[in-house]
Specification:
Length: about 210
């Protein structure tokens, strides 16, 4: 997801809190940067402040609404009923006034994610199953304890329906913009995931291409 907030302290607090909840989070400090990032990445949810420099948050919302798959949650100090109506009329999917209760923000983000085009709650590929709602994986109906990153990598691979997913794609979808492009985090996570899933190995390494679940 993308957090758009010009107050660095607030932006860092929101982004770090969401990352602790298992989300991959990018941050933009002004409206122009938000539009650039939204054009370059397929975000699921955009948490958007209204009073932004360079390009106002209202303009960002109006430009992205209907032309981007992301759901927009306005998170702003403008909390009067009229402000909420204005934000929703601009195309925002939800509106939360500051100060806010962080668990409510998380709950609203999860609710917005559920409004996306429906996807199966349980992914299955061969003898492997992944329950998205409960964040649980199983092989041959036996639970496989996985970390959040391992679950996220597995979800991307299973959703690809046998297609090859590059390390760069995994880094983009599971980590965030602060991840070092030269890091070995993807390789290490896949190695641990492969080991936890057991024998025979399920994840194939495609030389020069990436990884896939055949």
């Amino acid at each position: 997801m993308l957090v758009v907030e010009d107050n660095e302290v607030v932006a860092r607090a929101v982004a770090d809190g969401l990352r602790d909840q298992g989300f991959a989070v990018d941050v933009a400090g002004d409206g122009a940067a938000a539009l650039d990032k939204a054009a370059a990445a397929p975000y699921d949810v955009i948490v958007l402040d209204r009073d932004l420099p360079v390009v106002h948050g209202d303009d960002v919302c109006a430009r992205l609404s209907g032309r981007h798959d992301a759901r927009i949650l306005m998170l702003t100090a403008a909390g009067l009923p009229g402000d909420r109506v204005d934000g929703l009329n601009l195309g925002a999917d939800d509106y939360l006034a500051k100060p806010f209760h962080f668990p409510e923000l998380v709950a609203r983000i999860v609710a917005l994610s559920r409004r996306a085009p429906p996807a199966p709650s349980v992914l299955r590929r061969g003898e492997l199953a992944l329950d998205r709602a409960r964040r649980r994986a199983a092989r041959r109906e036996q639970p496989v304890p996985l970390t959040r990153k391992e679950l996220a990598v597995l979800e991307v691979l299973m959703s690809a329906d046998g297609a090859v997913i590059s390390a760069e794609q995994l880094l983009d979808q599971v980590w965030d913009e602060f991840a070092d492009p030269f890091t070995n985090a993807v390789a290490v996570t896949v190695m641990r995931l492969r080991r936890k899933l057991g024998e025979p190995p399920l994840i194939e390494t495609v030389i020069g291409g990436g990884y896939r679940l055949p």
